[in-house]
Design brief:
single chain; 2 domains; 6 helices; 13 strands; globular
């Protein structure tokens, strides 16, 4: 893996330098790449460069190409990068998580998210999907986001391109047991549309039209989590 990562850095820097002769944006310069490979960077800078590798689709594409001669499956993605992606903070201004999907007659297209996405039997961080250019899903998309000890799983099911069903599952992150004493509410333009306590292990909102929504999870006294949901046509 270190040899492949070193080759990745060299190729990424070579192409970046060819198209951007002057340093621009978040791309590290040649000296920073060299220090990164030699393990001489401070922890903050080391994390910044790793985060760049996860968020830069070009760099991730090279990474996956180097791991295998043919496109890799999610199961073969580097564990270190997957764990790093899951631990990266959400973007400023996002209340915990963000999900943006495009609704068509037969598919759901993932435009952006700060949560993990279910691919096969594994939840995969969004940066890995961007690197692999995976964005279309048939019938439904399932996303996962942890908020401290609460694990929130959201399933968005396409209803023939006209609307969608929304199921929210709440679990204890440590025990994986269902949480039933938290309220799940669906808001649109700050107006509460529906609000329920889980009857079993989930709350379901049926036949929701495309638009911008907020899913709030709250206890008796305070809000525990908030997810921005933007479903487009």
């Amino acid at each position: 893996m270190p040899e492949k990562l070193e080759e990745l850095i060299k190729l990424a820097y070579k192409k970046w330098k060819a198209v951007r002769p002057r340093r621009s944006g978040p791309h590290p310069d040649e000296e920073e790449w060299a220090c990164f490979l030699e393990g001489k960077l401070a922890e903050k800078e080391n994390l910044r460069i790793k985060a760049h590798l996860l968020e830069c689709g070009f760099c991730m594409e090279i990474l996956t190409t180097l791991i295998h001669a043919e496109p890799v499956s999610m199961e073969n993605a580097p564990r270190e990068l997957i764990e790093l992606a899951r631990n990266l903070p959400s973007r400023p201004g996002i209340f915990g998580a963000e999900i943006i999907l495009k609704l068509s007659e037969k598919t759901l297209e993932l435009l952006n998210t700060t949560a993990d996405i279910l691919v096969g039997s594994e939840f995969v961080p969004a940066p890995i999907l961007r690197g692999r250019k995976i964005k279309e899903f048939k019938d439904e998309v399932t996303v996962l986001k942890d908020f401290n000890d609460i694990r929130v799983e959201i399933k968005i099911e396409n209803k023939a391109g006209e609307a969608f069903d929304l199921a929210v599952f709440l679990k204890d992150k440590q025990t994986n047991r269902a949480i039933k004493d938290l309220r799940v509410s669906l808001f649109k333009d700050e107006l509460e549309l529906e609000s329920y306590l889980p009857s079993s292990n989930k709350v379901t909102f049926e036949h929701v039209l495309a638009g911008k929504y907020t899913i709030e999870i709250s206890g008796m006294e305070n809000k525990m989590a908030s997810i921005l949901l933007d479903i487009r046509r």
